[in-house]
Q: What sequence folds into this?
């Protein structure tokens, strides 16, 4: 197996910092309408998993499984860190249908957004490190680093990577599949 110079370790640290900083700065600054639907789906997935109701784990007809899983794990982490959020979760679980006009539901759903967003940020940032790792043998260390930095600092990629949504995850996993 070909060994790469030890310069790679600082490159990983640089790439991770470049990927995390712009994504973490947006945490908690705004809410997009689609994200609240993902929080709702994540709550439903979490409820189904805890109940062992495997059929109810299907929350949507499109490929948002990874987003729902990250959202559900994020909700659980938030509940462990802030047990007072259980009351909001209990209230949300009584809703039969989520309506964008329901302001109370929007406020309650937004309480659980940061945990899911944080996991999407971590997943996409680690994905950028894997892109760098997989592209080094193909492009060389310098070109792979520049490509990783461009990916990490691209405003559209960074913006979408800070949301609880499937777009950045799908793009990251598709790029990794091509490189693998």
A:
């Amino acid at each position: 197996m070909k060994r790469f110079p030890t310069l790679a370790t600082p490159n990983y640290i640089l790439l991770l910092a470049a990927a995390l900083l712009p994504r973490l700065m947006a945490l908690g600054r705004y809410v997009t309408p689609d994200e609240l639907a993902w929080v709702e789906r994540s709550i439903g997935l979490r409820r189904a998993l805890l109940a062992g109701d495997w059929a109810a784990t299907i929350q949507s007809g499109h490929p948002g499984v990874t987003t729902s899983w990250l959202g559900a794990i994020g909700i659980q982490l938030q509940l462990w860190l802030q047990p007072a959020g259980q009351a909001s979760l209990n209230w949300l679980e009584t809703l039969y249908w989520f309506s964008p006009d329901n302001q109370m539901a929007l406020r309650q759903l937004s309480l659980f957004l940061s945990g899911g967003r944080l996991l999407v940020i971590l997943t996409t940032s680690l994905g950028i490190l894997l892109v760098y790792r997989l592209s080094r043998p193909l492009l060389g260390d310098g070109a792979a680093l520049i490509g990783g930095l461009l990916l990490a600092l691209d405003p559209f990629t960074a913006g979408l990577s800070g949301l609880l949504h499937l777009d950045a995850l799908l793009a990251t996993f598709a790029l990794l599949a091509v490189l693998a």
Remarks:
- The chain has one domain: 8-179.
